[in-house]
Design brief:
single chain; 391 residues; Heat Shock Protein 90; five-stranded mixed beta sheet; 11 helices; 64% helix
Length: 391
């Protein structure tokens, strides 16, 4: 199994390492160190022992982003070794950057531990020397430890906190954008479905009548029947064309100046039934209800309209009954039409009518059923009034 290779150092880390190493070499060449050669702590005199911690610390800088914990562990040993030489300011500065990077780029648990460890070292570096030597100058050791160790760790924690907050804000913004896009797509889909239902309900009735009566006019050699069929065809084509123009005008007019036509209500059921009778249906209407919410009236009107259109296209001759009853906080709507083989001409159907009626009922939280009941075809919808008021 091949050994795992460490990722390549970041370009900025390479520049930091090169700059720190070059700066340290210039300080060594100038004979500038952090301690004198006669300092008791200096065990290795001369400029050359300083180069070992300097070079190792520069190598730690290369790992500050790709392996921050390893870099900090090696840097801790290196800065301790630097204490027994004449020292180098560049080594100390690179160590502070390694501590800062370990908190910023390392795991969260390690970042917290580094905060605690450097804080305890600062306290210990302040209390212990003062307790041993009893001179105010001993407190400077704690200050130096705080500046070299705890200061970079605290700075890295602050930067990390701001970075994480910015990342969380970015993720929230992306999530908000995704939700907005989902809402927009859902709104577009719902609007397209609504337009499809409206277009179907407004025009299908007229086109069905035109198809049936034109078929009758072509198949029957009776001038009187043909004239009546042509009159029905003309009336339905004119009404359908007017409704199509109105709908197209609303869709094209983006200025908002054109008001859409008022939604049909159950007050127009009588005219709807009269139109169905003019198209050849034998329709009876029984409506027993009070004041209803507008969404319920609109849905009920469209369901009755589509039921009569389906009866015109598919039902055999016979009585079609429309019954609306308000009870138990709901409007109970039922349309019954003769079911069976139709001898005369019939118009083709797409099946979208039942889908539209079911969707209208579901939007109000009601129930819908359509199917044969003995020798009759039944359309039954229950529209809750409470749902209608809140829709």
């Amino acid at each position: 199994m091949p050994a795992r290779r460490l990722p390549r150092p970041h370009r900025f880390d390479v520049l930091l390492a090169a700059g720190g190493l070059l700066g340290g070499l210039l300080l060594v060449a100038a004979g500038l160190g952090t301690r004198r050669s006669d300092d008791p702590i200096t065990l290795f005199d001369g400029p050359w022992p300083v180069l070992v911690p300097l070079t190792v610390m520069a190598g730690c800088e290369l790992l500050r982003r790709t392996a921050p914990r390893t870099a900090l562990a090696v840097a801790g040993v290196t800065i301790t070794a630097d204490l027994v030489t004449q020292g180098n300011v560049s080594t100390i500065l690179m160590f502070t950057d390694v501590v800062y990077a370990a908190v910023l780029y390392g795991p969260l648990a390690s970042a917290r531990r580094i905060q605690w460890i450097t804080g305890l070292l600062t306290v210990a570096g302040t209390v212990v020397p003062f307790a041993v030597w009893r001179v105010p100058e001993a407190l400077l050791i704690g200050v130096i430890v705080g500046v070299v160790a705890y200061g970079p760790a605290a700075t890295g924690w602050i930067v990390r906190d701001h970075r994480d907050a910015a990342e969380a804000a970015r993720l929230r913004a992306e999530q908000t954008a995704l939700l907005a896009e989902a809402d927009r797509a859902q709104a577009v889909t719902a609007e397209r479905a609504r337009m499809a239902r409206e277009l179907h309900d407004m025009v299908a009735n007229h086109l069905s009548a035109i198809a049936i009566h034109s078929t009758a006019a072509l198949s029957l050699d009776d001038p009187a029947t043909s004239r009546r069929s042509l009159a029905v065809i003309r009336e339905n084509s004119v009404e359908g064309l007017a409704e199509m123009r109105r709908l197209i005008g609303i869709l094209r007019d983006g200025s908002g100046d054109r008001e859409p036509a008022a939604a049909p209500t159950l007050d127009g059921l009588r005219a709807l039934v009269d139109g169905a009778r003019a198209n050849g249906l034998d329709v009876s209407l029984d409506a027993d209800h009070g004041t209803l919410p507008t969404p319920v009236e609109f849905a009920a009107y469209r369901i009755v309209q589509e039921s009569l259109t389906n009866a015109l296209k598919h039902a055999r001759p016979g009585r079609v009954t429309v019954r609306l009853v308000q009870r138990d906080g709901a409007l109970d709507l039922r349309v019954l039409s003769p079911c069976g083989h139709r001898d005369g001409p019939r118009a083709p159907g797409s099946g979208a009518g039942l889908v539209g009626m079911r969707e209208r009922t579901a939007l109000l939280g009601g129930t819908f059923a359509a199917g044969p009941e003995g020798s009759r075809w039944s359309v039954h919808a229950v529209l809750p009034l409470a749902e209608g008021e809140s829709a």
